[in-house]
Write a structure and sequence with these properties.
alpha+beta; Phenylalanyl-tRNA Synthetase, Chain B, domain 1; Phenylalanyl-tRNA Synthetase, Chain B, domain 3; 6 domains; seven-stranded mixed sheet; five-stranded antiparallel sheet; 41 strands
């Protein structure tokens, strides 16, 4: 919001010596962040000049320049005409123009530009004849400013335009404009009136509300007022699209009458382009008070205006000459309930536009539902100054005063007559009272506010406050629809009393707290994998069905386990991921594409894992605290999101060098990482063969807890998956349920005493069917070896003629140790034989000679 400082002074007592920078600093103190300062950038000799001669000189480049002789009075120190080269062609000899002489400074996007005499097009140009854009008055750069035409209808201003006169004051370039960023909850600050009120809060300056003066001149509604019907039969969330509609008539208006110069200047300084008197007046009132207005050509209207929702198939041509298909949620202004003549709160229709033949106008000032207007503006991609204000909330009591000001301006400057027709249809519910403990602000902010301070601040911002014991009943002002809860009031107390008065205190953490068990597990796992040479990555948790297809997964099954995002960042990835591997492959592929041949990655992240039907989540209006029942329903609708651990390895695991050849990453490397994680968490896992996508059917293993809980799978990615995703050949990896591991690790581990007696080892080679997994033979040896069996290690595998076809030999080293004594050879042999016997019983193992 751009606020001209001289306009601001009309509404609040800004000290004469206060600059735009001072005003911006004061507004920052109450939460209105400065966006920029405008004006005051032109310095040096900027004067009025009269063009004495103008010679057109064609150039070789096809351009024609004007070599001008310009009378600048005594401003150049000699009184002689000034020679200036100008490329514009919208002026002629005898015109009054704006000239900046050498030594003057113009503001540019690149910084200040000092004007000097320089040779160009064969002449020495001693200055510059200026356009609006060069002076920061507007965006017009097609021609220079011609004061003769600019002030043709303003004799008083034209009298001041004598050669050599100071043009800085003449054009208002000595005036400043403060631009502030208005947050969505402070819609009332989209007006000079609102910003003036905030400046008064910040500095204590007296605020003079222009609405208070206008309200005393507002006539009562009359039976002859233009008929208006509010017929919203499809309100959004139970809130009517329009609850108040005011209208006034001005007759005999001269629409060709010029907008007064002071109003054009203010509109330009506020960032709006002057258009015509009727449009400029409505914009001026909107900028000044915050109430959007719209003007209709009364001759194009029927006897009744009906405000209703759009019907299927309806269309409307708006003022920008675009034919728009309307949505049933759109709120319309219609003629007699049939013909749409405006998209309420957004833009009017072309059929009732004020034109050159208009003599009578109907002015509209209404109060619309913010949600309705915001949705229409976004649906039609039609943001407007009006919708920007309505969607943030406009004061419902403002319409009559805004209409009165607009009528008075049109009568004064357009020669019109205020009609007796006064319409004020509908009614607005007063703001609801908020009950708050008087000590609540102190408890929330942490600063001691006495009751008088709390009450004083709330009354200062316009609230009506009544005490009820230790509680306050607070009724917010109509221009603050954002104040709906006690917390909102607390924010106002802190803001007005001063954010700078809130001390910065470092909180002291309570003793005995620290990382949770789950946090310690995640940190342990991440540290371990990083120490093993893996790099941690993070991937966005969104996938598309094409990724499931590439991974060889059942699309229907995967979509049943997850949820689809209503407004995804990318239409190609609308689903929440069900596995980390499905998104980690992007990080692997990106690293490989950038030259990394040997890559080892891991990720700790959430996945979605629905186990039943999806449940819709209920919603509440913005600003309404959900009930406990609603919160419980929302939580129930959130799908389970377990945390997983995934790793991917590609290229060499052991790199080649002077020490020898390298070794490609294999499935056993992933299994080794899994075993390291399990040991670090003191969890025992069981590894068995399996065949699930996206893993290679012959190189896939299932990882489970001893109670049978499946943690996940590891393996080599299926060749089809590798080809579909463009990954390095024989990429390996795995994914585990880290939450399940965390639960399994949440137990007390009893340390065993280290044995000091020597160990005894015995090697056995067992011949079994080739289909028997080595891990199962290992389990049988452990089960038969007894309590003194300390370790079983597979150190050799043989398949060949010596063991027969379909058979293989597995060689194990069994380590025994007694915690009480040195074991004898006979004891070790007996225990070894018992272990071999168990393997023979379970798997038919035969000891190889």
């Amino acid at each position: 919001m751009r606020v001209p400082v001289d306009w601001l002074r009309e509404y609040v007592a800004v000290p004469r010596e206060a600059t735009g920078l001072d005003i911006a600093a004061s507004l920052v103190a109450v939460g209105l962040e400065e966006e920029g300062l405008h004006g005051g950038g032109v310095t040096g000799p900027l004067v009025v000049g009269r063009v004495l001669t103008l010679e057109k000189e064609p150039q070789k480049n096809g351009k024609t320049i004007n070599w001008c002789s310009v009378d600048v009075g005594s401003a150049n120190g000699t009184g002689e005409p000034q020679g200036i080269v100008c490329g514009a062609h919208n002026f002629e000899a005898g015109d009054l123009v704006v000239v900046i002489l050498p030594g003057g400074v113009l503001p540019t996007p690149q910084g200040p530009l000092e004007v000097s005499a320089r040779k160009t097009y064969g002449h020495v140009s001693a200055g510059m004849i200026c356009s609006e854009r060069e002076l920061g008055l507007g965006e017009d750069h097609d021609g220079i400013i011609v004061l003769t035409r600019r002030y043709a209808d303003d004799p008083a201003m034209l009298e001041r335009c004598v050669p050599g006169a100071d043009a800085i004051a003449l054009l208002g370039l000595d005036r400043e404009t403060v631009e502030v960023n208005v947050t969505p909850d402070r819609g009332y600050c989209f007006s000079v009136r609102g910003v003036a009120r905030e400046y008064g809060h910040a500095t204590g300056a007296t605020f003079s509300d222009p609405v208070a003066d206008l309200a005393g001149r507002v006539p009562p509604a009359s039976p002859s007022g233009h008929s208006v019907e509010l017929a919203d039969d499809a309100p959004i969330r139970g809130r009517a699209g329009c609850d108040r509609f005011g209208a006034r008539v001005v007759r005999g208006l001269d629409v060709a009458a010029p907008t007064p110069g002071w109003m054009r200047t203010r509109l330009t300084e506020a960032g709006m382009r002057p258009i015509s008197l009727a449009v400029d007046v409505t914009n001026y009132v909107m900028l000044g008070l915050g109430q959007p207005l719209h003007a209709y050509d009364l001759a194009t209207l029927g006897e009744k205006i009906v405000v209703r929702r759009a019907r299927p198939g309806e269309r409307l041509t708006t003022l920008d000459d675009v034919d728009r298909a309307l949505d049933p949620e759109d709120l319309l202004i219609t003629d007699g309930g049939e013909t749409p003549i405006g998209l309420a709160g957004v833009m009017g229709g072309a059929s009732t536009e004020v034109s050159g033949s208009t003599t009578d106008v109907l002015l509209e000032a209404a109060h619309f539902d913010p949600v309705t207007i915001a949705r229409s503006a976004r649906r039609h991609r039609l943001p407007s100054e009006a919708s920007r204000r309505f969607e943030r909330g406009v004061d419902p009591e403002l319409a009559p005063a805004a209409l009165q000001l607009a009528v008075e301006l049109l009568v004064e400057y357009g020669g019109g007559t205020a009609g007796d027709e006064v319409t004020d249809a509908g009614s607005v519910e007063p703001p609801a009272a908020i009950r708050m403990s008087v000590g609540f602000p102190s408890r929330i902010v942490g600063v001691e506010y006495d009751p008088a301070t709390v009450t004083g601040v709330l009354e200062q911002i316009g609230c009506t406050v009544s005490a009820d014991g230790d509680h306050l009943e607070v009724v917010p002002p109509t221009w603050r629809p954002d104040l709906t809860t006690a917390e909102d009031l607390v924010e106002e107390v802190a803001r007005i009393h001063g954010y700078d008065r809130i001390p910065s205190v470092l909180p002291t953490p309570p003793g005995g707290s620290g990382l949770t068990h789950a946090q310690r597990v995640r940190r342990t796992v991440a540290d371990l994998l990083a120490a093993q040479g893996l790099s941690e990555v993070w991937g966005a948790p969104f996938v598309g069905e094409d990724r499931w297809v590439a991974l060889g997964l059942d699309v229907a099954a995967e979509s049943a386990r997850t949820v689809r995002i209503a407004n995804p960042l990318s239409d190609e990835q609308p689903w929440m991921r069900t596995s980390l591997v499905s998104t980690m492959v992007d990080a692997l592929r990106r690293n490989v594409s950038r030259g990394a041949k040997d890559v080892a990655l891991f990720e700790l992240g959430l996945v979605t894992a629905l186990t039943g039907p999806r449940q819709p989540a209920p919603t509440e209006d913005v600003g309404v605290h959900p009930s406990d029942t609603t919160l419980a329903a929302i939580r129930d609708a959130v799908p389970p999101q377990p945390r997983h651990l995934a790793v991917l390895l590609a290229g060499d695991r052991d790199r080649a060098g002077w020490w020898g050849a390298g070794r490609r990453a294999e499935v056993v490397d992933v299994l080794e990482l899994v075993q390291a994680v399990a040991e670090a968490l003191a969890v025992e896992v069981v590894v068995t063969s399996d065949a699930v996508m996206p893993w290679h059917p012959g190189r896939c293993a299932r990882v489970s807890l001893t109670d049978g809980t499946v943690l996940g799978h590891v393996g080599e990615l299926h060749p089809k998956v590798v080809a579909a995703l463009g990954l390095p050949a024989r990429t390996v990896g795995g994914e585990l349920d880290l939450d399940a591991l965390t639960v399994a690790a949440d137990r007390t581990v009893t340390a065993t005493t280290l044995a000091t007696y020597p160990m005894a080892q015995s090697d056995v080679a067992l011949v079994v069917d080739a289909s028997v997994p080595a891990a199962q033979v290992h389990e049988a040896l452990v089960a038969g070896g007894g309590d003194l069996l300390e370790e079983v290690r597979l150190f050799d595998v043989y398949e060949g003629d010596q063991v027969g076809e379909g058979r293989r030999s597995l060689a194990y080293r069994l380590t025994f140790r007694s915690p009480e004594r040195t074991m004898t050879t006979d004891e070790v042999s007996a225990l070894r034989d018992a272990a071999v016997a168990e393997a023979a019983r379970v798997h038919g193992a035969v000891q190889r000679a």
